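Researcher: Re-running this chain for the archive, since the previous output was lost when a drive failed. Same request as before.
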Amino acid sequence: MSDCPRCQSSLPAEATACPRCGAAISAVGAFDLDLKGPSGSLAPGLARQQGKQTGLRIGADGQLAVPRAATQTALHRNIGLDEDGFDPFEIRAFADYGEPPTQIYLTPLYSLRVRKRQAELRLELAERKARVTALESSVEDAIVAFAERARSVAESNPVYSRALMPIAEVEALLFSRDSALASEHENFKRVCAEVDGKLSALDARIAKIDADSKDLEAELAKLEDSRKRAEARLKRLEIEARAGAVGPERDAERAAQEAELERLTPLLAAAKRKLDAPRAARAAVEREAGPLRKARGDAAERLRRQTSTRSAGVDDAHKRLRVALSDFGRTALMDNKTFGADFDGARMSVEGLVRERQEKERAVLQVEKAIASADELVVKRGYTAAAVAGVVFLLLVVGVPLVRVLVPSQAAAALPCRVTLSSDRGE
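Model: Regenerated structure tokens:
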């Protein structure tokens, strides 16, 4: 026998809760008293202590969790709840399958209802799992932020030297990979600066050659136009001569155009020879610039390959650093002594996110239990009954008309013999 410290009533030794005031007994026999005031807030003087002592624990899977009280499982068994604290009747009501029928002809309708509802529940399950995933990311971000803040305090505590060692090692790896990536970029910039300087000088030479060639090309174009005009006049004179238009004036004009052509021919040849030199010089500069452009393209391609590989390495190091900080943060969250009042707010924020995540996980578990709450035996019977009914219907729809088609045809084949015999008897 023991007394309840709240209402001082006598209790049997095996009691798990006070029948008078409802105070629950903890696993070690002490009472879990309600420390909240009439307004539902913590009683004065306990709020600060509550902030220091969070319910965070590291579970078997390494994740932070807020465990339930040890008395809840026993309490659940006593009041008809399952091991997870769910009311089986509420689960079945949430599933909304209806009661499994006892009549065999009603089982197909139950199977159809189960199939439809399970499809709806699976969609809801996917949505709830997505919420859990989002909260897991938020919890991880909060833990990493706590670890980054707590690290400066832990560095002065020799107890945490081994716990901080993985973080330092991953940071060294990250610095090495990031430095290699930065070095690759610097090497690309150096090569590009060198190549671009040479290409700029060659481009300047090409521009000068093009400017000189433009004057020669203009001179050559004028000579070509003069030649074409002289040839056109000669052709016109030949056409007029064939038509009978002859005379001293036309002969003189013809001679003048032929002399003009003779004068233009060496000038055109000389102008073309003048253009050969700058064109050859430009081709030589282009040949010199070709390897430089190729070297720049090769450098860009190398940078692309190296950036792809080294960026993946940097991302991997960032992920490893996040994991190391997260591991340290989980340990630091449990240490209320080293990381005291200054970290209470951050610790309570993490606990709030963990509690919310567990609530979402519990919501996921509720849907999973609802999906599994269907009477599978009745569902299978419903499928079997529906299959049998389908076969019978098929036989009735197809088999009976087929028999009717086959049987009358045999009777019709025997009918003329009977008619003939009857006529013979009449005679």
